[in-house]
Amino acid sequence: MDQIKEYFSLAVRNIRTRSLRSWLTVLGIIIGVFLIVSLLSLSEGLKTTINKQLQALGGEMVMVMPGGEADLMTSMMFGGSKLQREDIEAIQDAPGVDTVSVMSYTGITVRYENESKQVAISGLGPWKESVDLFSNFYGWQLKEGRWPSKGNHIVVGSYAASDLFSKEIKTGSEITVKGKKLVVSGILNSVGNQQDDSMIYMDMDTYQDITGEQKGTAAYAMVKLEEGAIENVVAAEIEDALDETRKRRSGTDDQDFSVITSEKMGEIAGTILGIIQMVIIGFASIAILVGGIGITNSMFTSVRERTREIGIMKAIGATNSAILSIFLIEAGIIGILGGLGGTILGTGLAKLVDTIGKMNPSFYLTTTVAPWMIIFALVFSFVIGCLAGYFPAKQAAKLKPVEALRRYE
Amino acid sequence: MSAPIIKLENVWKTYQLGKTEVNALKGLSLEIPEGAFVAIMGSSGSGKSTLLNMVGCLDSPTKGKVFLKDIDISSMPESQLSQFRGKVLGFVFQEFNLFPNLNAQQNVMLPMVFQGTPMEERKKRAEELLDMVGLKDRIAHQPSELSGGERQRVALARAFANDPEVIIADEPTGNLDSITGEKIMAFLTKLHEEEGKTLVVVTHDAKIAAYAERIVYIKDGQIVDTIY
């Protein structure tokens, strides 16, 4: 133990002797660990946010989307086939279903105060039930104005109102979509998601008049369950009902729709986030690996420079394992210093992003620094340091004293 | 005469220089008795450095055997040999070979670290040794803050750290002016006489060799003469 302490102080001295090179090597590791900690904390924050939103949705809602589960992401992004009128009726008739709201959305050119912008608009129907559902499960609240009472009345998401056009949209303003004048009756509070806050919402009829979407169809259906109904049971009932209507219509029972419970949504989001995290860890590991090669390089140079010292140490009684220990400790210290630095910087950035996110609701990013990340980063950088230092240290240890002394003579 | 502490038996050392083989030592045999003061003399290229490496167990012979305290060093694994060498032999080099990032006391303490001597003992012994070589007030100085003679005295103190039986000195005065060199030789002689240490000095300087009780002349890898 006493000897290890002594080797430790020798290693520290060696690092200090070539301080600039040591710090540059440490910097390589810092960057890698910084990447790992900051990116992981972002993705962890994303996970927390999504879970919170899913929890807010509560357990009593089921979503029906077109497209099979396998290509769910594709149909969510690009829109798949539509739910037909009879599909929606079938859902309505399924046991355990209280109300069905439908929703469609698309991007369209909107004119406001002589300015045209591409904006996402969304139709909801039936309007009143949809507003109830969105208020209950999604946290919709009016920031100003009133809920629409006429067909040409619309509500505008908070971000759409404040940031989309150079002039802020106010209650009572008029916007024009495809020649049709719409009156803004209310502005929504932020729901904590920029995409939804950027939308303009209107009655399904108005939406379909404007966009030319076939009446009675919709992209999604959101199902509110009857009191006491069990989510998974109702989901299965809806699936069966939809299978029937599809079979009648097209003669196949290929599922081209998905019935998604909030539980399943959580699973899907979890899988996607899991992949994202793996990719992040992968990239950041490469960064640390590069840092590790930096350590190896620096250590090899150091072994070459100190060949003579190693020879003297051996001549005065240092064993192979003593030399190995000194060099390994040196590499380990460089690794762990880099790990510490990277963790501090990464945590700092994460906290900064978090603070900005809290102060500015439209910049919706939260970060979570979990203890496992810090432990992972420190252990990983220490192990990389030792591994990177192993070969140079081995080379130093097996130098014969006479060869080491003869060099540079 | 007492039993040899170091014995070389028909030692050959062959270096491969490109395609040609160079025999630095050619079947050399030498016995160094315990308590002796031996000088090894020869011009450069005579093989005296190679011989010193053999005597100091820093290298292994191509052919033949080297015994340190009657133990065949080729039978010892490297790590055991390092420990043994660190305990029995003390080295003084021409270039002092101090560690530039350690101060005088830490330099002297280092061989004791490798022998596992406890911290307190190491400190005390290093202080005593530096006092002995007259550097008591230089204990905390870095080598760069010391003169050549002072550095060699630190190196001397270091060589004595583990209280070795044999001191091996390679041109110990080679980098010093003659007055400082004489002082160093006087130290070595005194330690040999008072503590009975075995002393092996390699030199090409006849004045230095004159301190020894026995001078071994070496040429072309062989002993050509021994003067008692």
Please supply descriptive tags for the structure shown above.
heterodimer, A: 409 residues, alpha+beta, 6-stranded mixed β-barrel, 14 helices, 10 strands, 61% helix, 17% strand, elongated, B: 228 residues, alpha/beta, Rossmann fold, 6-stranded mixed sheet, 4-stranded antiparallel sheet, 30% strand
List the helices and strands and how they pair.
The complex is a heterodimer of chains A (409) and B (228).
Chain A: H1 2-17, H2 19-57, E1 61-66, H3 72-78, H4 85-93, E2 97-112, E3 115-125, H5 127-138, E4 142-145, E5 153-156, H6 158-164, E6 174-177, E7 180-188, H7 194-197, E8 200-203, H8 204-211, E9 220-225, H9 231-250, E10 257-261, H10 262-305, H11 307-315, H12 320-359, H13 371-397, H14 401-406
Parallel strand pairs in A: 3-8, 5-7
Antiparallel strand pairs in A: 1-9, 1-10, 2-3, 2-6, 2-9, 4-7, 5-8, 6-7
Helix pairs in contact in A: 1-12, 2-10, 2-12, 2-13, 4-9, 10-11, 10-12, 10-13, 12-13
Chain B: E1 4-17, E2 20-33, E3 37-41, H1 48-55, E4 63-68, E5 71-72, H2 78-88, E6 89-92, H3 104-114, H4 119-132, H5 148-159, E7 166-170, H6 178-195, E8 198-203, H7 206-209, E9 214-219, E10 222-227
Parallel strand pairs in B: 3-8, 3-9, 6-7, 7-8
Antiparallel strand pairs in B: 1-2, 1-4, 4-5, 9-10
Helix pairs in contact in B: 3-4, 3-5, 4-5, 5-6
Give an overview in words.
The complex is a heterodimer of chains A (about 400) and B (about 230). Chain A is of the alpha+beta class and about 400 residues long. Chain A has 14 helices and 10 strands. Chain A has a 6-stranded mixed barrel with strand order 2-3-8-5-7-6, surrounded by 4 helices. Chain A is elongated, with a radius of gyration of 31 Å. Chain A starts with a helix and ends with a helix. The mean pLDDT of chain B is about 85. With about 230 residues, chain B is of the alpha/beta class. Chain B has a single domain, classed as Rossmann fold, CATH 3.40.50.300. In chain B, a hairpin with a 2-residue loop joins β9 and β10. The two termini of chain B are about 15 Å apart.
